[in-house]
UniProtKB/TrEMBL annotation:
It comes from Sinobacterium norvegicum. Its cofactor is thiamine diphosphate. It comes from the Bacteria. SMART domains: Transket_pyr (SM00861). Gene3D superfamilies: 3.40.50.12470, 3.40.50.970, Multifunctional 2-oxoglutarate metabolism enzyme, C-terminal domain, TPP helical domain. This is oxoglutarate dehydrogenase (succinyl-transferring). It holds the Pfam family 2-oxogl_dehyd_N.
Length: 942
């Protein structure tokens, strides 16, 4: 392995040739003692990639007894080694030493000095005691082989071994990695920590920079506290090490070639990060405190705001984006992941975009969306190459919580073990330990493309917010905090004692920062004042359009037929399941005009034509490949082997991407992910389909706080489409309603579109309109279930080729307009029930009109339809849903306004189910009786 590393070094152009021997010597020194080489070389060697399946940093080759080499290197987490088979007392003790080393690696974090307040009461694990391993003080000076312990030599006394283990695993950094199955990942972590005893020697320039960042973090909070006393800001006091941590993450990721860093975080410390990391103008922040800020829409409180900027790193310019998010704690996590995945897809390189999410300790342990997000992290449709999670661990939860009430686990970070993420616990009052943990965590993420967790153990100096008095519920903790020297002052004192800075230079740091704030200057280091705008997502083409903006959604019939032919040409030797094969054959007939066009064909052709026109399409949900009701079959499965074929990905050689993934069984995190994706990809059709429409209940936070209000709070445009199966067919309360009423209740200021298409042509043009029209508004679709195969819910090729999306569909039969006194308005499936009953009863003086877009309400189009009936006396709204649900309550004022303009003396009445606490009946007989009655009521049949 040593030779392969040297080959890697020689292949690097800047150290090849005459420099190679020098670099090889440096590397040998680094292997023996990483602190013996200059910091920039240490950083370079730390970031070397793995070679031939082994880590690049390894113990120097030395003669190690074969038995202990096998035990130490092949089994990184040995169980208690069998002592019986070892012949001498010395060999038995050697095995016990190996077990002691393993115990420190596995459980040393439980002895580490992690709490800055010193309040933790933890008993050291018994297996870290030498007596547990039947070793005594008499053995301390005995020399043992170090196995794979990184000491720089093959043998050491037991005392030296214990000192190495204590320094590495029980200092101010405690790392959990025993839960990781990969021996390679474990050994990588061991080598990185043991090589420098988890305490690398940093140069004076690095130390001064860390102090400057701590001074900025503390300086902003003190400034705001004196200028705006008692005003909520959710300050960072007690966790100031977050600012140098983020600084190191950004700078080090830039050296890896990362181009974008997307950050998500809740309230605590957010203003500090915006000012000191992203470079928000202090003057803008002060204007927000003073009530002078200019705002658009409804706006949001300052500690929910996002920002984007560019900073310079050693690897070049890096774009930073802080995601907007509400008070719903961890919900921003999957939003960040979606935004990152979109940026990675756009760049075609997952290595160029890094997600960083800061969490609160109680939220990380308590919020279910955290688990959902972790479960997404390695799946095909949602992985982002690993996220750096930072837990700002206040140790007190949220307001008055005690740890025993906040979680059932030892650490707030234990949930991360489900995906075998390494967890770095670090004492926030040791900035150099924070720096080291940050570097190792990021390097691990870059090396293994997995999530990592940084648990920044700190405290909260001011309580939940600046108006809160925490000693009322946490008297002992806050007695300690009142006397606690700040992190910045502790570190400044250390550097003064080391001679790194003088007391005068320390004072200049704090005075200089305050002066910059007084003058409104940017205080973020490395901020690029004239950023490369090519790194931004350009939303300008989609700004300023009215919802009535025209979209020509027509496509020549010949083009549709050509695309259909390509879609339905299945590769040779790819056997399909019998029913699927029939669906493909039927679609061929539809393209040829031999069969009417059904829903599955029309929807598929909408995607195909958009792809042909250069628009990417992304479709996710719990059963989207097949479709919950087996209508889509966009992913075809080979019946003879494990293989699949996606026709929409094989239209042409250079087509845009068609992404389709069956999601994990999640609504909240997956929908939040797709929201994040859509806010970063304006030119693509992004769709999330619920397995049943009411499953969107599980994602209500995303709908309320992002999809329906994001534009007006944060000016974040979003073109996300939600397909929510909705229809009353006797399937009970949990599989009938997509809760149409909730979306209509949240509709205002043209924030979303709510559509209920009733024909295949309508869904075809609706989906095409969503991306062809320059408007970007979320589209909520009450998509059908029974209509997917309804014999009357069909369309023609001409309707696809020459039609458009109709917000209102008028009467389709020949009726005497003068004879019509009653018009029934409806949406969705109930139209076919009304139509068939009217035909059955021979009714000719009642017209049925469909409203296909319930919001924005198509008043002009509806008025045009109603004006056809000069003798109109009664307008009836008919719906399947109970009276307190569906569209009635939220839309009747729109209908009444139109009716007033057309026929002021006419009445508006309701026909539908009675108000109900439950969405639908659970018994088929009751459902049918209710359905029959509402149809009779609508058609005045008594």
């Amino acid at each position: 392995m040593q030779e392969s590393i040297m080959e890697l070094l020689r292949s690097s152009s800047h150290i090849s040739g005459g420099n190679s021997a020098y670099v090889e010597d440096l590397y040998e020194q680094y292997i023996l003692d990483p602190n013996s080489v200059a910091e920039d070389w240490r950083t370079y060697f730390e970031k070397l990639p793995r070679v031939e399946g082994v880590v690049s940093q390894d113990t120097p080759h030395s003669p190690i007894v074969e038995h202990f080499e096998l035990l130490g290197k092949s089994k990184l987490r040995p169980a208690a080694a069998p002592v019986e088979g070892v012949s001498t007392e010395y060999e038995r003790k050697q095995v016990r030493v190996v077990n002691l080393i393993a115990a420190y690696r596995n459980r040393g974090h439980q002895k580490a000095n992690l709490d800055p307040l010193g309040l933790w009461q933890r008993q050291p694990p018994v297996d870290l005691d030498t007596h547990f391993h039947q070793l005594s003080a008499a053995d301390l000076d005995t020399t043992f082989q170090t196995s794979n312990l990184y000491t720089g030599k093959s043998e050491a006394t037991l005392k030296e071994i214990i000192e190495t283990l204590e320094a590495t695993y029980c200092g101010n950094v405690g790392v959990e990695f025993a839960h990781i199955d990969s021996a390679e990942e474990q050994q990588w972590l061991q080598n990185r920590m043991e090589s420098v005893r988890s305490n690398p020697q940093y140069g004076d320039e690095v130390k001064r920079h860390v102090l400057e960042r701590l001074s900025a973090a503390e300086g902003l909070e003190k400034y705001l506290g004196s200028r705006y006393p008692g005003t909520k800001r959710f300050g960072l006091e007690g966790a100031e090490s977050l600012i140098p941590m983020l600084d190191e993450l950004i700078q080090r990721s830039g050296s890896y070639g990362v181009q974008e860093v997307v950050i998500g975080m809740a309230h605590r410390g957010r203003l500090n990060v915006l000012i000191n990391t992203l470079g928000k103008s202090p003057k803008e922040l002060f204007d927000e405190f003073d009530g002078k800020a200019k705002y658009v829409g409804s706006a949001d409180v300052k500690y929910h705001q996002g920002l984007s900027s560019n900073v310079m790193t050693s690897g070049g310019e890096v774009h930073l984006a802080m995601a907007f998010n509400p008070s719903h704690l961890e919900i921003v996590s999957p939003v960040v992941e979606g935004s990152v995945r979109a940026r990675q897809d756009r760049r075609g390189d997952a290595n160029q975009v890094l997600p960083v999410v800061a969490h609160g300790d109680a939220a990380f342990a308590g919020q279910g969306v955290v688990m959902e997000t972790f479960q997404m992290s390695q799946t095909r449709g949602y992985k982002t190459g690993g996220t750096v999670h930072i837990v700002i661990n206040n140790q007190v939860g949220f307001t008055t919580s005690n740890v025993e009430d906040s979680r059932s686990t030892e650490y707030c970070t234990d949930v991360a073990k489900v995906i075998q993420a390494p967890i770095f616990h670090v004492n926030g009052d040791d900035p150099e330990a924070v720096l080291f943990a940050t570097q190792v965590a990021l390097d691990f993420r870059q090396e293994f493309k997995k999530d990592v967790v940084l648990d920044l153990v700190c405290y909260r100096r001011r309580g939940h917010n600046e108006a809160d008095e925490p000693s009322g519920t946490q008297p002992m903790m806050y007695e300690k905090i009142r006397n606690q020297t700040t992190t910045r002052d502790l570190y400044a004192e250390t550097l003064v004692n080391e001679g790194v800075i003088s007391a005068e230079q320390d004072k200049q740091l704090t005075d200089g920062y305050r002066d910059a704030l007084d003058n409104g200057r940017h205080v973020a280091k490395s901020l690029v004042l004239e950023p490369n705008t090519g790194m931004f997502v350009d939303w300008n083409p989609y700004v300023g359009h009215d919802w009535t903006a025209f979209a020509d959604t027509r496509v020549d019939a010949s083009t549709i037929k050509d695309l259909a032919a390509r879609l339905h040409t299945i590769p040779e030797g790819f056997p399909l399941q019998r029913q699927v094969s029939k669906i493909v054959e039927d679609r061929k007939k539809m393209a040829a005009g031999a069969l009417p066009i059904n829903w599955g064909f029309a929807e598929t052709m909408a995607y195909a034509t958009l792809l042909e026109e250069g628009h990417p399409v992304r479709l996710t949900g719990q059963d989207v490949g097949r479709g919950t009701f087996s209508h889509r079959h966009a992913v075809l499965h080979n019946q003879k082997e494990t293989a699949s074929y996606v026709p929409l990905q094989n239209l042409s050689e250079n087509q845009p991407t068609f992404t389709i993934h069956d999601s994990l069984l999640s609504e909240e995190a997956v929908l939040a992910f797709e929201y994040g994706y859509s806010t970063t990809t304006p030119n693509a059709l992004i769709i999330w389909e619920a397995q049943f429409g009411d499953f969107a209940n599980g994602a209500q936070v995303v709908i309320d706080q992002f999809i329906t209000s994001g534009e007006h709070k944060w000016q974040r445009l979003c073109g996300l489409t939600l397909l929510l199966p909705h229809g009353y067919e006797g399937q009970g309360p949990e599989h009938s309603s997509a809760r149409l009423e909730r979306f209509l209740q949240m509709s205002a200021e043209h924030n979303i579109q709510v559509c209920v298409p009733s024909t295949p042509a309508q869904v075809y043009h609706m989906l095409r309109r969503q991306i062809i029209r320059p408007l970007r508004k979320p589209l909520i679709v009450m998509s059908p279930k029974s209509l997917l195969r309804h014999k009357q819910a069909v369309s023609t090729m001409d309707e696809l080729a020459e039609g458009s999306f109709k917000t209102v569909i008028g009467e389709v039969d020949e009726v005497d307009n003068n004879a019509v006194k009653r018009v029934v308005l409806c949406s969705g499936k109930v139209y076919y029930d009304l139509y068939n009953k009217r035909q059955e009863e021979g009714i000719s003086d009642i017209a049925v009109v469909r409203i296909e877009q319930l919001y924005p309400f198509p008043s002009d189009d509806l008025q045009q339809e109603l004006e056809k009936y000069p003798n109109l006396e009664e307008l009836v709204w008919c719906q399947d849903e109970p009276q307190n649900q569906g569209a009635w309550y939220s839309s009747q004022h729109h209908m009444r306004r139109v009716l007033q303009a057309v026929k002021p003396v006419a009445e508006l009445n309701y026909a539908g189910r009675e108000a109900s606490a439950s969405p639908a009946a659970g018994y088929m007989a009751l459902h049918l009786a209710q359905q029959e009655q509402l149809i009779k009521d609508a058609l005045a049949l008594g």
